[in-house]
Amino acid sequence: MRIGVIGAGAWGTALAQVAARGGRPVTLWAREPEVVESVNGAHENRQFLAGVSLADSIRATGDLAELAGHDALLVVAPAQHVRAVLAAAPVGATPLVLCAKGIEAGTRLLVGEVAHQAAPQAPIAVLSGPTFAHEVAAGKPTAVTLACEDEDLRTRLAERLAGPAFRTYGSADVIGAEIGGAVKNVLAIACGVVEGAGLGLNARAALIARGFAEMTRFGLARGGQAETLTGLSGLGDLVLTCSSTNSRNFSLGVGLGQGRSARELLADRKTVAEGAHTAPVLREAAREAGVDMPVTEAVNALLEGAPVADVVGALLSRPLREEAQ
Question: Which residues are catalytic?
Answer without folding.
Answer: 184
